[in-house]
Write a structure and sequence with these properties.
The chain is an alpha/beta fold. The protein has helices spanning 2-6, 22-44, 54-59, 80-88, 108-115, 132-144, 157-169, 175-184, 191-198; strands at 8-9, 18-19, 66-69, 72-75, 91-96, 118-121, 148-152. The protein starts with a helix and ends in a 5-residue tail after the last helix.
């Protein structure tokens, strides 16, 4: 059908049909094929990549999941199943502030490579581990991360504390602003310690 329709084309100077040349026929055939392919793709729809969201974490039952900054979820310890679900939801970076021998931890180093994502262990041992050096290292990890990040510890208490000090020491936030960020990221028992480090009075 296409051959019969394209075998003759009119010209401006003559009413006599002239045979189509092979190169022109090939060009028209390719154009028709490309257009049909584009229309098929548009009809089927191209699935957008998963976007890291707080809802994705909470739907997986991640403990104390919060999102104090875009594409950053702070939380308590995650399980292997939650890890895989978060990867599927678009998270590409995982940072744990726990020691590898803490209960429920230590499996991530062997699991993350099989999922094709980044994992870093940055241990924080209570208040003594809340140092400027650790805050600066966390800042570097977050700044260099591409895609969604999950930052967690046992309950998100250490996470919130370190986030507050990072905001104060590295990002130049005011003490109260830094404290508010830490609370939003899950800080609880370490609040008095962090208040003192920020130069804030007790409540």
């Amino acid at each position: 059908m296409l051959l019969s329709n394209l075998s003759r084309i009119p010209t401006m100077n003559s009413s006599v049909p002239r045979p189509i040349t092979a190169p022109l026929f090939l060009a028209l055939l390719l154009t028709a094929a490309c257009t049909a392919d584009e229309q098929a793709q548009a009809g089927a729809g191209v699935q957008a990549p998963a976007q890291p969201t707080l809802e994705a974490a909470t739907s997986l039952g991640v403990r104390n999941a919060r999102m104090p900054a875009p594409a950053l979820v702070t939380a308590g310890q995650i399980t292997e199943e939650q890890f895989d679900g978060l990867v599927a939801a678009g998270f590409e970076n995982f940072i744990s502030l726990r020691l590898a021998d803490e209960d429920g931890a230590g499996w991530e180093e062997g699991h993350a490579p099989s999922e094709g994502v980044s994992f870093t262990r940055l241990p924080v041992t209570g208040g003594a581990g809340l140092t400027r050096e650790t805050a600066e290292e966390l800042a570097w990890l977050l700044d260099s991360a591409e895609g969604g990040t999950v930052l967690y510890c046992g309950s998100s208490n250490r996470v919130g504390a370190l986030m507050a000090l990072k905001a104060f020491w590295v990002d130049g936030a005011e003490p109260q602003e830094a404290l508010d960020l830490g609370l939003a990221a899950g800080m609880t028992r370490l609040e008095p310690t962090v208040r003192g480090m920020l130069g804030l009075s007790e409540n």
